[in-house]
Design brief:
It is built from 26 helices and no strands. By secondary structure, the protein is mainly α.
Length: about 625
C-alpha cells in the first residue's frame, strides 16, 4: 500500500475513533487500544504518527482560535479523544515493535546458514538488548518458528520451538524453588559450594527441569563433578535439549540475581551473592564451552552466553573492581575455572565492559598465583579503560598491578603504579581508589624496606597504611578496609611487632569474612599463623594455618603452600601426637568454618605438601 493510501486509511481510522467517542460508542481506553491494534499495520507506525500529529495540531489550533462556545466545546472533546488515541498508540507501538521484533527474529533464524543459527538465536534473545524478549514474547517466537517449520518443512525450526517451550516450562517450575534450598535444615550459610549433595541448590533445581540433558548437568553440578567432562560426553545432544538448557540456566541466573539484588539489608545475601551468581554461571558456561569445543556450534554458543553474562555484570554498580570475587565459591568443580574466561574475551573488541572483565581475570590470576598472566590482564585492562575514559577502572588496574608486582618482588614497579593510582584517584575524587592506593603504596614500601633492611623507611610506609585504613573506615568500604588491615598486619610482622600484627590481622580476617573475600581471608589466616608462631603460641598457629591452608587450597591459590609449610614445621617440632592433639582441640571451631570434610582434609593437604616439596 502506498504512503498516500496509508495516510487516507489512518486519517479515516482516527476520525472513526473520534466520532465513536463523541457519540458515546467508545466508553473505555481499552476499546481505543484494540481498534488501533487492529487498524494499524505493523511496520507503518511512522505514517500513523504523522497523521495523528497533524490532526492534533489542527484540532489544537481550532480550540485556541474558535470563538463560538458550542464549536469550541465540540473541538475540545475531539482534542480530548485525540489525546486518548495518542496515549493508547504509545502502548500499541510497543506491542507492534515487539511483534515486529519477534517476526524479524523468526525470519533471521529461519534463513540463517546452519553454522550461524545458534549464534543468531542467542543474539535475538540476548537479555542485554534494549528491549529483551520476555517469556510471553519467547512463546510467540516459538509459535512463529513452529509455523515456519510446517510451512517450509524445516525440522530444525521445530527443535528450536520445542526447546523454547520446554525451557520456559522448566523455568516456571524452577521459579517456585528458586531459594528454598537456602533455608532447608536451618542452614546458616548461603552459597553454591560446600553443601551436601542432597541439600544443595543444583540437586533441588535438577528435580524441576524437564529435559534429561538439563537434569544430567544439574546432577553433575550437584555432585561437584566437571561440566567439561559432562559436555565432552554429550556432544551429540539435540538442538531442542540445548535450547531448553540455555533458557533454563539464563532464567535461573537472572532470577537469583534479581532476588539477591533486593536483599540489600540482608547480611546473608545482597551484592556478594549477586557477584557470585554472575561468576558461577559464567564459569559453568565457560566449562561447557570448553567441553563441547570452541570449534563446535554448541561450544561457540556457550562462549557467546559467557560474554552476555559478563557484559551484564560489568554494568552493575557492585561490579568488584577491587576483588571479593571468590565469595561463595568452593568445591572441586570451580577450581581453576576462572582461567577459562580468557577464551571468549579474545573475541571482543576493546570496550569499557571488556576492561572491567579483564580486571576480574587479573585479580583472579593473582589469587591463583599466575602472576605473569595477572600482569598481562591488568595491562590490557589499563589500556582499554584509558581509551574508554573509565577512570575508576584505570585506577583499579594500577592498584592491582602494584599488588601483583609486590608478589613478583618487583618493588620499584609496585611503588610506581601505586603512586600513579594515588595521584589519579585524588585528581578524580575517587576515595575508594585512594584508600586502595594508600594501602598498596604502604605495602609496597614495607616489602621494599624489608628486602633492603632499611628500618627508617617503615614509619612512612605504615603511615600510608594507617591513612588508607582511616579513609576506608570513613567510607564504610569493607574491601579497602580489609586490604589496609591485612597490609598493616604484614607490616607489623616485618617490624617484629607480633602483638600489633595479630590485632590488625584478626580484624582484617573478620572484615574479609563480611565482604566475602575468601582470598583475603586465607592470606590473613596465613599471616596470623606466622605471627602466633613467632610468639610460640603453637596451638593458635596450627588453628589459623589450617584454616588458611584449606581456604586457599579450595580456591586453587598456590598461596596454600605457605601455611602448609608452617604446619609441616610444627608437625616436626611437636611430633605426630602433639600436633594431632593441638589440631583436635580446635576441631569444633574449625568445623563451624569448613565443615567435617574440610577438617578431615587438613592432614591430607599437609601430606600432599610434604610429598611435593
Amino acid at each position: 500500500m502506498s504512503e498516500l493510501s496509508l495516510r487516507d486509511k489512518y486519517l479515516a481510522l482516527i476520525d472513526e475513533i473520534v466520532q465513536a467517542t463523541l457519540k458515546g460508542k467508545i466508553s473505555s481506553q481499552g476499546q481505543v487500544y484494540q481498534m488501533l491494534l487492529k487498524g494499524v499495520t505493523v511496520g507503518t507506525g511512522e505514517v500513523f504518527e504523522l497523521v495523528l500529529s497533524e490532526h492534533l495540531d489542527s484540532t489544537t489550533f481550532q480550540v485556541d482560535a474558535q470563538t463560538d462556545e458550542f464549536k469550541k466545546a465540540k473541538a475540545t472533546r475531539s482534542l480530548r479523544a485525540l489525546k486518548t488515541i495518542q496515549t493508547q498508540w504509545k502502548q500499541v507501538e510497543e506491542q507492534n515493535k515487539a511483534t515486529e521484533s519477534i517476526l524479524s527474529a523468526a525470519r533471521e533464524i529461519t534463513t540463517a546458514p546452519e553454522n550461524e543459527r545458534l549464534a543468531i538465536f542467542l543474539r535475538v534473545t540476548d537479555p542485554n538488548r534494549k528491549h529483551p524478549l520476555n517469556q510471553k514474547q519467547l512463546q510467540q517466537l516459538a509459535k512463529s518458528l513452529q509455523k515456519n517449520a510446517e510451512t517450509f518443512k524445516l525440522d530444525y525450526l521445530e527443535e528450536f520451538a520445542q526447546g523454547i517451550t520446554r525451557g520456559i516450562s522448566s523455568w516456571g517450575k524452577l521459579q517456585q524453588h528458586l531459594i528454598s534450598w537456602m533455608y532447608e535444615q536451618n542452614r546458616a550459610s548461603i552459597g553454591f559450594g560446600g553443601v551436601a549433595v542432597e541439600n544443595g541448590p543444583w540437586a533441588t533445581w535438577g528435580k524441576q527441569v524437564d529435559g534429561e540433558f538439563s537434569k544430567g548437568l544439574f546432577s553433575t553440578l550437584a555432585k561437584q563433578e566437571s561440566p567439561v567432562e559432562f559436555a565432552q560426553g554429550n556432544r551429540s545432544i539435540s538442538l531442542s535439549d540445548w535450547v531448553e538448557l540455555t533458557l533454563s540456566l539464563q532464567f535461573l541466573q537472572r532470577g537469583l540475581v534479581n532476588w539477591f539484588d533486593q536483599q540489600a539489608y540482608n547480611v546473608k545475601a545482597g551484592s556478594n551473592l549477586s557477584i557470585s551468581t554472575f561468576l558461577t554461571f559464567s564459569v559453568i558456561w565457560s566449562q561447557l564451552g570448553n567441553g563441547f569445543g570452541a570449534d563446535t556450534s554448541y561450544g561457540s554458543a556457550a562462549w557467546q552466553i559467557v560474554l552476555q553474562i559478563l557484559r551484564n555484570f560489568s554494568q552493575r554498580p557492585y561490579f568488584p573492581l577491587y576483588g571479593g570475587i571468590f565469595a561463595s565459591f568452593s568445591g572441586n568443580y570451580l577450581k581453576d575455572a576462572l582461567s577459562y574466561l580468557d577464551e571468549p574475551l579474545q573475541r571482543v573488541e576493546g570496550t569499557q565492559e571488556k576492561a572491567r572483565i579483564l580486571t576480574i581475570l587479573g585479580y583472579s590470576q593473582r589469587a591463583l598465583g599466575q602472576y605473569q598472566s595477572s600482569v598481562k590482564f591488568h595491562q590490557q585492562a589499563l589500556e582499554i579503560a584509558r581509551n574508554a575514559e573509565d577512570k575508576a577502572c584505570e585506577i583499579a588496574n594500577l592498584n592491582h598491578l602494584s599488588r601483583t608486582y609486590v608478589d613478583q618482588k618487583n618493588y620499584t614497579e609496585a611503588i610506581n603504579n601505586s603512586q600513579r593510582a594515588l595521584i589519579l584517584s585524588r585528581q578524580a575524587g575517587d576515595k575508594i581508589s585512594e584508600a586502595n592506593a594508600l594501602a598498596n603504596l604502604g605495602y609496597s614500601e614495607v616489602m621494599q624496606a624489608q628486602e633492603s633492611e632499611a628500618e627508617a623507611d617503615y614509619e612512612m610506609a605504615i603511615n600510608y597504611l594507617q591513612q588508607g585504613l582511616s579513609l576506608s573506615e570513613k567510607l564504610g568500604d569493607l574491601q579497602s578496609k580489609g586490604l589496609c588491615l591485612s597490609s598493616l598486619g604484614v607490616a607489623y610482622i616485618v617490624t617484629q611487632e607480633a602483638s600489633k600484627a595479630i590485632k590488625h590481622l584478626e580484624e582484617g580476617f573478620k572484615t574479609a569474612q563480611t565482604s566475602g573475600d575468601l582470598y583475603l581471608q586465607g592470606l590473613n589466616l596465613t599471616n596470623l599463623a606466622e605471627a602466633n608462631y613467632s610468639l610460640a603460641n603453637f596451638e593458635r598457629a596450627i588453628y589459623t594455618a589450617s584454616l588458611g591452608m584449606y581456604i586457599l587450597n579450595q580456591i586453587a591459590s598456590r598461596e596454600w603452600h605457605k601455611p602448609a609449610r608452617l604446619l609441616s614445621i610444627l608437625q616436626n617440632q611437636l611430633g605426630e601426637e602433639g600436633f594431632k592433639e593441638s589440631l583436635v582441640k580446635n576441631r569444633s571451631k574449625m568445623i563451624s568454618f569448613i565443615g567435617v570434610d574440610g577438617f578431615d582434609h587438613i592432614p591430607e593437604l599437609i601430606e600432599e605438601y610434604r610429598n611435593n616439596s
